[in-house]
Amino acid sequence: MKPNNPIIFLFFNLFFLIGGFVFSQEEIPPENKIDYTSDRTTIDEINYPGAIILRKVNKQVHFIHKGIDVWCDQAVFYDAENFFKAFGNVRMKQGDTINMRSKYAEYNGNTEFAFASTNVKLKSPNNTITTDSLFFDRAKQEAFYRSGGTVKDTASTITSKIGRFFMEQNKFSFVVNVKVVNPEYVINSSQLDFYDDTGHAYLYGPSTIVSDASTVYCERGFYDTRGDTGYFVKNSRINYENRILEGDSLYFDRNRSFASAVNNIKVTDTLNASVIKGHYAEVFRAKDSVFITKRALAITRQENDSVYIHSDTLMITGKPENRIIRGFYDTRLFKTNMSGKCDSIHVNQSSGLTQMIGKPIVWSSNNQLTGDTIHLISDPKTEKLDTLKVFYDSFMVQQDSIDASAYNQVKGKEMYGLFKENELYEVNFIKNTETIYYTREDAGDLIGINKTKSSTIKMLLDNREIIDVYYYTDVDGDIYPEEEFPPNARKLKGFIWRGEEQLYSVDDLFSGEGPVELIKITGIPLPEEEEEFFEERDEDDPLLNSKSRLDADVLRNIPRDTIEPPKREPLSPRLDERKQRKRKDKENDE
């Protein structure tokens, strides 16, 4: 039976309700209680049992709890459970480190766990997080979103599906569809750890850094977003306008337009169809140059063949239309119908001129060519060998086909050779020429040894064998029987035979060289295995309050955390007063 006096009935309800609050408060230590101030305080046991409705009139509702302040236009506060829901112009502030705004928020004072939804913006000293929903664990000092968010740093803007902010470390961990937009470049990654104090980013999984001048790819890497330098160690490559740089370890400096690589390096020239390999390289994009050493090898495509150049050090410079290859120290050259050695080499790809300097030697089949300097000239359009020039003390030696101790020799001041279909078919020696030639019958029997001097000698070759020799001007010579030609006269002055050095395959480019000792690369460690943000808790100490709008059973797995504004928010003061009058009128009627 209800009391007849409505005032007594209301006082009776308030007494027991407040009494319940006092009883419950004894279970929470005073220092852990949420404190609050509010212009208007009401109770609505029908819609919000056990709660106090707090509203703004002139000043916002203000909650204080252990160093955090929360302001809002209205709130539902469950004092006995140390939990509140905040609505309208919500602002949450933690000292000088965190300032968060949203349309809705809730806070559990017992676990210090907060959730914000709808137009969430969290500001720290160096960045701003914008998302549609955000979890904030004050005990861990971590914030987390998983339905898409944006972090604006002093230099960049970062977006991702999932993000986690470790406030004490000033570290972000972004996962799924990570994108960093900077005025100079764009980073895309599947996972990125970002340290806000330094601007350092660690990339994990397939990642790209794209700018107007280059594209970097890696599956594990580091990038200084403020210093614009990077270090990449797994399946890494840098694509420039006309070059691709690959290696076990890559370093990248955007400000200097510089990159370097270590171990198992490959530089591909996409325009000139050439490849450079080695184990240490430097690339200067602005100068369009590459420096490579440690088993350096350049491979240039020529028609249906490839030219291999190996040196201790290789340098490739110049724009694609005028590219120069330089090789230094023990240079070796190989192609299917020719090989050679020299101290250094200079290749001009636009003119087709290859210069061999420093004890140069060229082998064309069984013909050995030596001199002070050797030039090989190719047709730039057809890429076919056209001319061979040997300057100063030119020498051509061919080992006799029958007697291995006998050598056909031609000597002159200069030599000019002509090629047809990349095969040497004519050789001309000029100035002070001499020959020693073993003349044989078709069956191979030796007719005699021809020793002749003249001003000019012309030799014709077929299938890389000498078939005719022509002597011009001031010819002086004869064919001598073998027994009348003393052994000590059978070699021209300056003769040298280096047949044992001839290259017959690509592998011979590296003959006599020991294995390369590769540099030990200091890798980038895998990301730290952090504890789950929503850690397991005892049933009697849940992370969420039972009054939370979030479902604890699906907290870990729900795809989207945004919660639409409630269909029925706390009543405005005017509507609330009208409802109270109707309730009083109904009670009086009864």
From TrEMBL:
One Pfam family it belongs to: OstA_2
InterPro entries: OstA-like_N
Start and end residues of each Organic solvent tolerance-like N-terminal domain: 55-189
Gene3D superfamilies (alphabetical): Lipopolysaccharide (LPS) transport protein A like domain
Annotated spans, Disordered: 555-590
Domain of life per record: Bacteria
Full protein name: OstA-like protein
The species this protein was found in: Gangjinia marincola
